[in-house]
Amino acid sequence: MDFKHQIAAPAGLAGIDVDALVLVVGERADPALAAPLATLIANAVSEGDLVLKKGKLLYLHQPAGVAARRVVVSVAGDASPKAFKAAVAHGLGALKSSGAKTVGIAAPGATLGAGHAEAAVVAAAEASYVYTHTKPSATPGWMPTAITLFCQRNEARPVKQGLRQGSAVAAGVTMAREFGNRPGNVCTPTWLGQQAKKIGKQFDLEVDVLDRKEIDKLGMGSFLAVAQGSDEPPRFIVARYDGAAKSRAPVVLVGKGITFDTGGISLKPGAEMDEMKFDMCGAASVLGTLAAVASLKARVNLVVLVPTCDNMPSGRAVKPGDVVTSMSGQTIEILNTDAEGRLILCDALTYAERFKPAVVVDVATLTGACVIALGHHHSGLFSADDAVAARMLAASQSALDPCWRMPLDEEYDEALKSNFADMANVGGRPGGAITAAMFLRRYTAKFPWAHLDIAGTAWKSGAHKGATGRPVGLLTHFVLGYAR
Ligand code: BES
Ligand code: MN
Ligand code: ZN
Description:
The protein is of the alpha/beta class. It is built from 13 helices and 20 strands. The strands form 4 sheets. Strands 7, 8, 9, 10, 11, 14, 15, 16 and 18 form a 9-stranded mixed β-sheet that branches. The protein has a 6-stranded mixed β-sheet with strand order 1-6-5-2-4-3, covered by helices on one side.
């Protein structure tokens, strides 16, 4: 899909020659702004066919006075990028069966900025995504070839910039969705390693994919304890994008790459276990972010680390009560083999030390408890560093990819006490998302750090089952915040 912007001609809407025009109007819109459709819209409002409330639509076919063959009037709640994104998504949704190839988006009377433009691209990409890899028959019902955002002359610069950034984010989101949606028998650790190499080739990045022997040499006893139950060999992916001077400390992103989580010997119940193919969505999101940041040629150094393996029960699998030694030297009593995410992440966090990072962020579908706490709207944000947390919250707002800060007080650390090791890998049911974060915190003494628990936001269940590509938007904005 080609995304561009165009300065609206002085003649306004009349001359916009597209198959379909999405006209975003505000709840308190002055219909006069939508000339030459002013009378038509005013009449529709007065006769109740169009209600000026967010989410409402009016579909017009070949209205007189404009070149566009279809016009969808879509009402936005306010002037924010968030409301604009919803109105664009809704308007495009109404065009699904129209077959329109060229689509225009205009918001007469509104002021468009980079945020609006980025939001429109992301909304369009999200709406037109179709998974086909193992279901080729699922052809997209509708795919516009070109979408043009109409703006005023003085808005052109920020709008162009927003479209560029939006295209990068959208491509990263789509990549993360594609990786996440691949079934566990396709998306294996080996396959993820190959995809990372591909990204490296595409953007000329340094990508190393370590195998079991090399991982063992590093002393990653915790990671390998999880991997040992599966016949699928593990991988440790190290990818670097160097967009700034070597002297600049990099941002390090760590993604949980469990390509299937059965729970191991602490086996999960059967219902919905298929969804545990999404347990590598943290890995998918950091790889998608890497692609987005690299494609933007951002002036920042970025390192992406992905520990990836299956969590399986077998005769060789790690057992409850087993004690392992992590790369940091700290010992761990594995009381529950289903709390495996933290076991692979802790070694990756220790590995991150060698980069002397400006900040480290790990991203993981870590706990069911986080889904109970926050549902499916906010990702869980954990950080003991107020400055990092503030950056993360700001990024989440500008990217329209929400996260919510959770507590991380020392008091929660108690729960991880073990009589047989430096720590246990679980802390009981109360505050399960927090004690999981506290476990990770024990591996982050050497750098500023934040943890994102995306268990509730990385995929959808039910009729719309599939990966969301979150939090690629949030992470991309966060990383760009470190560019100079
Ligand atoms: N991958 C799961 C977390 C998860 C569960 C995400 C359900 C989304 C939906 C993780 O590895 C896990 O199993 N966590 C356990 C931890 C527990 C044993 C302390 C959980 O949340 O039940
Ligand atoms: Mn698990
Ligand atoms: Zn898991």
